[in-house]
Amino acid sequence: MKTLSSLLVAFGLCTMAHALPEDSAEPIKITSDTGGYDHQINEGFYDGNVVMVQGTLEIHADHAQFKMVNDELEEVIAKGNLIKIKYLPEANKPWVFGEGERLEYYPKKNLLVLSQRAKLTQEDDVVEANRIEYDTVNKKVRALSDKKSDRVFFEIKPKGK
Question: Where is the Organic solvent tolerance-like N-terminal domain (predicted)?
Answer without folding.
Answer: 29-138
